[in-house]
Specification:
64% of the residues lie in helices and 0% in strands. It has 140 residues and is mainly alpha-helical.
Length: 140
């Protein structure tokens, strides 16, 4: 049974509160490798998961490098948590032949929750950086 959206949101907010500037500092040099890792996600049920993760990684990267100082830290912390959450699933779950079906469902739920919770901030970020902000970003 999957947690409700409010349970997922509470979990994300609680875990994102643990994302310190030091965590971001350690995550920053790993983002290019993580983006490459996320390209390997092949899940027909969640075709936009890679694109969403790449977008969140760009947000974290731009904030951490000082390229965008308008992003609230709470948005960055939740984006970083979502990235680390998915990365850990990819590292710890064996390939069960179905593309990690339930793991990708959980990953997608976390990622979409972050995107939906911060939709106004992320949409403004995309506009500032001339990035496409389309319906695919918020879809499963």
């Amino acid at each position: 049974m999957f947690p409700t959206m409010s349970e997922t949101a509470f979990f994300i907010r609680r875990q994102a509160a643990k994302i310190t500037p030091l965590v971001l500092e350690k995550l920053l040099p790993k983002l290019p490798m993580l983006k490459m890792e996320f390209t390997q996600i092949k899940s027909p049920e969640f075709p936009h998961l890679f694109e969403q993760l790449e977008f969140l990684a760009d947000v974290v990267e731009d904030f951490a490098e000082g390229a965008d100082k308008e992003i609230p830290y709470t948005t960055v912390a939740e984006a970083a948590f979502a990235i680390l959450f998915v990365h850990r699933h990819l590292d710890i779950l064996p390939d069960d032949g179905d593309g990690h079906g339930q793991a990708h469902a959980t990953d997608s739920s976390v990622v979409r929750n972050v995107i939906q919770h911060h939709q106004a901030v992320l949409s403004a970020y995309a506009a500032r950086h001339q990035m496409a902000w389309n319906g695919a970003i918020t879809k499963p």
